[in-house]
Amino acid sequence: MVFHKTLINIRKKHGYTYEEFAAVLGCTTEHIIALESNRETASFSFVTNLKNKLNLHSAPITQDERNSLMDGLQNWKRAIDYADMSKAKEQKPELEKGARASYSPSVTNFYDLHAADYYRAVGDMKAYEETMAALSKRTDQFSARHQYYYHCLLGAKAFVEKRYQDAIKAYKKAEELDKYKELRDVRFYYGMGISLSDRGYATRAIAYLEKADYLSKWSKAYGGRPNRRFSVYIDGYMASDLAKLGKIDEALEILDRRLVSETKRDSKEGIGYTYFSFGRVYYRTENYDKAIENFDSALKNLDKGTEAYMSCLSYKTASLIASSELAGAKKCAEKGLRVTTDEYWKTLFDALKHSASLQDDPKSYIYLKETLIPKLQEYGKNEAVVHYYQQLSKFYFEFGSSEVAFKYSNLALEIHKKLHKELVEGDV
């Protein structure tokens, strides 16, 4: 029961001493002290009198009223998780009104945590940043559950900003706070899984993605119906990570099933993303012709400018470079540079363009080496860095010093060994 805490907040927000509060309510000071210390339980007549004297009819101050508001906040989170944004938008005003009038910091914290997620989902980044900034100033008021949601939000923010290692750290902190694994949160396991995957930790990523896949299909996790909105991405990342570990047949089997499912649903985005995932698997096996064929099918279905579209275009460019189709690779990279304003994607496409230009424009190696590779290292894209070191090594073997070529070859090998250890052992 938390009524005693609510009563304390009401008295303090109205600026009453014990004696003044008792006088307003027509009871003894001792009764107020006993209620606030939780030694006595408030009667129905006391609560009614409190509401009437202080005009608190819209404030959810009893345990039942508070529970009703908390249930509403949980349903709101569920709507956001399902990307049912019309429902989430409809629920927001009443929940905000209830939370602001609740005299409960805990309820207000839950509202603001879910509001930050809501703003992120609808693309209102100004409101999202403002809410996150406000939350960061009151973390000392957070319970473990508040901290859990807060660190999940930090993880999601870091992932969107391509700060994968920071995302992993935030999600790990959230995991530590979810001591009893009570939350069974699909989005936590999904967020941690794809962060690990994008950072290159395939073994660990698969473990989290499998959990996300299980929970997305387990109806009890979402109050009665499965949450399959993540399934196409879970399967795509899972297949890519299996391919990194050499489990090609297993990866292709997952994607074959997914393509059938997305075709039945007539989901253009799902079909596009599945073809993209096929392309990544073939890219891993160095079957670049097959990879390019699937990337082309993906690009026809994915919406331009989306993360999946940009990533698919970058993989196609890399495949063309690996196939020595340099003119086509430069064309793809330039297309990406025209489409994006995001600094990460600009860096990646710029690196691909200069990588494809090494043979006909040797000055490109300076820009690639001194500017683009350090930027990609900051983003944690070590697989890309290995590729570019290999390109520089090849360039020096053909046009320069074999000593410098060996230097870049060894740098590539050193990072590759570290990545291999991470992939196999799941070391973070």
Descriptive report:
By secondary structure, this protein is an all-alpha fold. The protein has a domain at 3-57: 434 Repressor (Amino-terminal Domain). 77% of the residues lie in helices and 0% in strands. It has 22 helices and no strands. It has helices at 3-13, 18-25, 29-36, 44-54, 63-81, 85-100, 105-122, 125-136, 144-160, 164-177, 186-199, 202-217, 231-244, 248-265, 268-284, 288-301, 307-322, 326-339, 343-356, 364-378, 382-399, 402-425. Helix 19 runs antiparallel to helix 20 (364-378). 41% of the residues are buried.
Brief sketch in words of this structure:
The protein has helices at 3-13, 18-25, 29-36, 44-54, 63-81, 85-100, 105-122, 125-136, 144-160, 164-177, 186-199, 202-217, 231-244, 248-265, 268-284, 288-301, 307-322, 326-339, 343-356, 364-378, 382-399, 402-425.
Topology record:
Layout: H1 3-13, H2 18-25, H3 29-36, H4 44-54, H5 63-81, H6 85-100, H7 105-122, H8 125-136, H9 144-160, H10 164-177, H11 186-199, H12 202-217, H13 231-244, H14 248-265, H15 268-284, H16 288-301, H17 307-322, H18 326-339, H19 343-356, H20 364-378, H21 382-399, H22 402-425
